[in-house]
Amino acid sequence: KFSAVYACVRVLSETLASLPLPVYRRLTPRGKVSEPEHPLFRILHDRPNPDMTSITFRETLMAHVVLWGNGYAEIERDRANRVIALWPLLPDRTWPERKNKVLRYITRAGTREISLAPDRVLHIPGLGFDGLRGYSPITLHRQAVGLGLAGEEFGARFFGSGARPSGVLEFDGRFPDQQSREDFRDQFSAVQQGLGNAHRVAVLEQGMKWRTTSIPPDDAQFLETRQFQVREIARIFRVPPHLIADLENATFSNIEHQGVEFVVYTLRPWLVKWEQAINNSLVPANERATIFAEFLVDGLLRGDVASRYEAYAKGRQNGWMSADDVRELENMNPLPDGQGAIYMVPLNMAPADQ
Hints:
This protein is α+β, with helices and mostly antiparallel strands. The protein has helices at 3-18, 39-46, 54-68, 137-140, 142-160, 178-192, 222-237, 255-281, 298-301, 305-317, 323-329, and strands spanning 23-26, 32-34, 70-77, 83-89, 94-99, 102-109, 112-116, 121-125, 167-170, 209-212, 291-293. A hairpin with a 2-residue loop joins strand 5 and strand 6.
């Protein structure tokens, strides 16, 4: 419920879910080629199950991982042991369990517990120290999240009370009974509290005086505390603050580099976790040497137009990029008649041994 936590979860989940996830075949001695006809391509790239698209499935599972520490999906297979569907399992009702060196996954459906073999579960773990189960960042950092929630609640209550600190009414007299004291307090609060009564003038009788008892927000550094907690949450999830709308330290000169750092230091470890879990659990054992799934992050690392075109020019001039290579990176079709497949080299260059 803390907006900074929700923003970080959205950034991580939506970014990972939106990346292309094709299936490749390794070539000999090196290189790779896309395998759109492989059965896993449809599962990973298009539709993991009849109810969900690929982006929805990955977004859901990634949100489970970053909030609960683990993402689980049941693997449905046909009689030939081929994967035909992936179904998310609730992370608060699923857990791994090892007994007598045998690993099983337990998921609770109502009051019934179902045991699943490891080959029937796709498990994406977060950071953990037993090799089986990741830890929930929310559980580990409950105090930091709680402090942020307390700041939000304080602000809501303060402005809901007409932006006035709480206090006491003092006078020398005495109410005749407890009920009279309660009635007066309720009447005074009804007239003075709430945004609709923010600028009403209070009339105090019998020598009454108002004395503030709470710390004003400026003395409590309310805004500074809230801003610090946003950065604290960003630090926990390792998300650059500018991606969750904290632009205080972002400039035109460094925001592009922060975006690259997000891909390299934040997103890449998650991508590797996903790729290894997919290749280990979904790719048949006899195909793992040649078939693999891999996220494409080139789009996230692209610079501005001037920087890209300068890099393309250097690649063409030095002979390791063709016009078709460049056009493919820019989402353009190849030139007709193979004209763009020619690699150019400068005439004034020669092999070093000559």
